[in-house]
Specification:
The chain is of the alpha/beta class. The chain is built from 7 helices and 10 strands. Strand 7, helix 6 and strand 8 form a beta-alpha-beta unit. The structure holds adenosine-5'-diphosphate and magnesium ion (MG).
Amino acid sequence: MSLIELKHISRSYTMGERSFYAVFDINLNLNEGEFAVILGPSGAGKSTLLNLLGGMDSPTEGELVFDGENIAGYNDNQLTDYRAWNVGVVFQFYNLIPTLTAYENVALMKDVRANSGKKSVWNKGYVEVMHPEDAIARVGLSERMHHFPSQLSGGEQQRISIARAIAKNPRLLLCDEPTGALDTNTGREILKLLQDLSHREGRTVVMVTHNSACAEIADRVIKVKNSRIKSDEWIENPKDAMDILW
Ligand SMILES: Nc1ncnc2c1ncn2[C@@H]1O[C@H](COP(=O)(O)OP(=O)(O)O)[C@@H](O)[C@H]1O
Ligand SMILES: [Mg+2]
């Protein structure tokens, strides 16, 4: 079943006299439970596309339909609400709050959802937040839960940021170059975790990368270049994340 449909989606920027497209005329359906990778060189428009999917940005043209709702024309409050209910995001540099412990960073997500209230159009009655302990256990860091980010390695910080992202039980987990700051072995472990979240728990995961080795573990590889989709292919037998080389 398709969770999100992009219809002629573009995002343009105007700089002085000139305007240009960061993404142009994207048509794409993403299915529930799929592990999709968006692959392309730097500047191709990958982050822009991910930000549009996650309601961190709005398209300048086109329709973006999530579970039947066109979010393309949403205002800031509506987008905040959309994100609170539907989207978990993992960034290259973790974006944890340094003055909060790992546990507190993850627990914040509960507040985000609670603040958005019961009357949200996205409250369909079945999306429970996870206990922070459970989200942290899921990424294998229970013993370190009361550490501060500076007391954790890069890989551990990324695990906590994944715990934070899944704590909302989001319909969509978005990852922007999640292994970009990590060494090969730690990066593989993070990819394995993302692959398991999709393959074992049925979560919809969309990961952006410029690294073609990372794409071999996905169910689907969407290549972007010069703001456009160049190809879109399903992988019959994705590699296990622990077996890739880069
Ligand atoms: N906020 C912005 N203002 C102006 N230009 C932007 C902005 N965000 C991205 N761009 C431009 O859009 C293009 C695509 O950027 P981006 O989506 O970040 O690419 P990628 O993630 O594939 O490296 C680049 O040329 C970038 O400089
Ligand atoms: Mg980027």
